[in-house]
Every structure is written in C-alpha cells, then in structure tokens.
Write a structure and sequence with these properties.
The chain is α/β, with parallel strands linked by helices and about 270 residues long. The chain is built from eight helices and six strands.
C-alpha cells in the first residue's frame, strides 16, 4: 500500500512543481470579524464566506490547480458557542444540498476528510452522496476538512496501520508505511498554503503534509477573498525558491540540466 509516485513525500524525494501550484490548502479565517465590522451577526459572515468558497473554487479550476483543500471546521471548533456551532452545521447542510450538483456539472470531485462520526446522520449521508456522485470527475478535486485536526490525522493513520500490519517493537516504521493511511493519501502534498484574516499559524491543519509547503498569509478577511487575492498569493508563490533541502546552487544546476534534456523543437512551415 504505497502512495502514487506523483504524490511522493517531499522529505524523501523532490516532488514535481511549477508556476501554478498543483495543490492549494487554505484556512478560511475572518468571517466573524467581517460581520462585526458591518454590525452583523457572525452567521452573516459565514454565509458570505460560502460565496467566497464558490469564487475560489472557480478561480482555482480556471487556473489549472489540481487539488484545493479548505479547512471548514476543525476538531477544536466544537469549543465555540453551541448556538454558533449549530448554525455552522445548518450552513454545512445547506452548502452540501445546494453546491454538490454544481460541482458535478463542472467536473469537480468532492472529498471530505475528518472524523465524521460526530456529525448528524443527515450530514454524513449528504457527504457520502456528494462523494459518490462526483467520484468519477477528473477536474479539480475539492477537499473539505471538517472535524479535522492534523494530530488526529497522524494518530488515526498510526492506529489503522497497526491494526492492519503485524510488527515488533524493534521494527522501524517508515514514512512510506504510514503515508497511505493519512486522510489525504490520494493527493500530492500542498505546494501553497494560504491563510486569510491576518493570523500567522497553521492551527493543527495538515501537520504532516505541510512539511515543505510555501506559506502565504494575507490580511484579507475570508468573505472578501476572491480571484484577485488568489492571484496575489500565486504571484508570491512564483517568487519562492523551492529547494527542498538543497542549496541555491544545486537548484540552479538542476534547472540547467532540465533545460539541456528538453527536446529540441524545430519550427516547420505549415
């Protein structure tokens, strides 16, 4: 049970990467502050945030991003006021009911990661239905992290691995042993992480997968995030030197080698 070569670990090899990130991971922060600035209830910010999700999914698909992962509800968000949590669950239900068909019509695949057992059965059923409907789609893969935590992900992977494999205390567990059991084993590691709202932390999101991800923090509140803000993040990403442990000189030599191996294109008259 090994991950595909295209999804190889960035701490084991050099993953393919280009000007457009293959995988974008986002923490959508600032809904409550957006509403507060406008003297609106917090739920108004969350509702406006759904529109920002729609715009960001569309923009990523148009720009050739293969995977978009959105942190919708963390395992720690249950600590919020019960009324707000209840409203967020209703909003989640509404989004699943109204958006999945649109995703399907646009060739987008939906996946949801996280501990789903704590959700209402209706939410669990809608998730299963949405994943089943879109599973054959080959466009953008949209992953929603709901009741998800990075530490939970690593622990559940270790638990599943230990149940399915017999090993002794002296045996060494390698990355390649555990990686297939992680929630996002189907996707390459994120190239770009974006957090809106001005905070500069990863908040227990994709702790394993973000090892060599480029980080972009913006003061833009999530309801105001759209295609222009995404392009700003991409422009910042394109200035990064992705060394993966190598020196700048090694990286430059590698690029020269790739150029030398590129096939010669000869123009011909049509």
């Amino acid at each position: 049970m090994n991950p595909p070569a295209a999804n190889a670990s960035s701490t084991v090899g050099i993953p393919p990467h280009g000007d457009v990130p293959r995988h974008v991971a986002m923490i959508m922060d600032g809904n409550g502050r957006w509403a507060k600035q406008r003297h609106l209830p917090r739920i108004a910010g969350h509702k406006r945030g759904v529109e920002a999700v729609r715009a960001t999914v569309k923009a990523c698909a148009e720009r050739g991003v293969g995977f978009l992962t959105l942190f919708a509800f963390s395992s720690e968000n249950w600590r919020r006021p019960p009324d707000e949590v209840a409203l967020l669950m209703q909003l989640f239900i509404g989004a699943l009911e109204s958006e999945v068909q649109k995703l399907h019509r646009n060739g987008i695949r939906l996946r949801v990661i996280g501990e789903q057992g704590r959700f209402d059965p209706k939410i669990q059923a809608l998730i299963a239905e949405g994943e089943r409907l879109t599973e054959a789609n080959r466009g953008l893969t949209l992953t929603i992290a709901a009741n998800y935590g990075g530490r939970w992900d690593i622990l559940q992977a270790l638990s599943r691995f230990s149940k399915e494999n017999s090993f002794k205390e002296k045996d060494e567990i390698r990355e390649s042993d555990l990686a297939p059991y992680l929630s996002m084993s189907y996707a390459p590691e994120p190239d770009l992480f974006i957090r809106t709202g001005g905070e500069q932390r990863v908040s227990n999101f994709l702790l394993w997968q973000l090892a060599y991800t480029e980080l972009h923090f913006t003061d833009t509140l999530w309801p105001d995030f759209g295609a222009a803000a995404l392009d700003t993040a991409f422009a910042s990403y394109q200035t990064r030197e992705r060394r993966f442990g190598r020196t700048s000189e090694q990286l430059a030599e590698s690029k020269r080698g790739e150029g030398a191996r590129a096939p010669l294109r000869v123009a011909t008259d049509a």
